[in-house]
Design goal:
The protein is α+β, with helices and mostly antiparallel strands. Helix content is about 20%, strand content about 25%. Strands 1-2-3-4-7-8-6-5 form an 8-stranded mixed barrel. α2 links the parallel β2 and β3. The longest helix has about 40 residues. It is elongated, with a radius of gyration of 24 Å. It starts with a helix and ends in a 12-residue tail after the last strand.
């Protein structure tokens, strides 16, 4: 065997080893991605102990309800009369009861009440331990960073977030961006003031991050379609 042939054989051997290592690395990445995606479903999505997905959670019979929700801007709704206090329609688990929008980042996403893998494939989800839109307190909404909240990190202080429901329109203004660990419940706990908390995972090329990117928004206005029904006192 000549020296040239020897060098060629060595090159082919190293090329084969390199290709083998590359194939193994790609295979591992392919296997890790679905595992991490499943893990992100099963981990704390809303950091709500009552919302963790377990075999006994009863979600096998999940009924997803879609609603037609009008998203006409208030300025174009000249014939619609609004009320600062009004009738709130409480959603059922799995029901789409809102559409969240932000013109500044071209965001428009359906919001479902409760959280499950199925619902997170359809849109954003609101923790059932937070208050319904229109009630006083902390409205907590989350979606995956690789789908519906991909542009959420682009939000800036002063941007307006408008949420449309079947019973009213709720406008918020971004006040603060926060970064926190997935085990930190500080920003998803109930509050005595009206606020909206939006958050998603920190984007990563592979796997999921334990860091959350969130935005605290202050309430600007509540505009209900129907006033609170007065108690007529019948039957007394």
């Amino acid at each position: 065997m000549t020296e040239k042939q020897s060098k060629n054989n060595i090159i082919w051997i190293f090329t084969g080893i390199f290709l083998l290592i590359l194939c193994i690395a790609v295979s591992i990445a392919v296997l890790i991605t679905p595992y991490e995606k499943a893990k992100s479903y099963l981990n704390i999505i809303f950091m709500d102990q009552n919302m963790r997905i377990t075999p006994s959670s009863g979600l096998d019979g999940l009924v997803i309800k879609e609603n037609e929700i009008e998203t006409t801007p208030v300025s174009n709704n000249s014939e619609q009369q609004f009320y600062s206090e009004g009738e709130i329609i409480r959603p059922s688990f799995g029901e789409q009861y809102a559409i969240l929008t932000c013109e500044d980042i071209s965001l428009s996403v359906p919001v479902y009440w409760g959280s499950s893998p199925e619902l997170l494939e359809l849109g954003a989800c609101q923790s059932s331990s937070s208050v319904v839109l229109g009630e006083t307190g902390n409205v907590v909404i989350d979606a995956h960073v690789n789908t519906f909240f991909a542009d959420l990190p682009k939000l800036e202080t002063g941007n307006q977030v408008i949420i449309y429901t079947t019973y009213g329109i709720f406008t918020y203004e971004v006040a603060e961006q926060v970064t926190f660990a997935n085990t930190n419940k500080k920003y998803v706990l109930p509050t005595e003031t009206d606020q909206l908390t939006l958050y998603t995972c920190e984007a990563q090329v592979l796997g999921t991050s334990s860091t959350r990117i969130g935005f605290i928004c202050n309430l600007v206005s509540k505009q209900f379609y129907n006033p609170v029904q007065a108690n007529t006192g019948e039957g007394e």
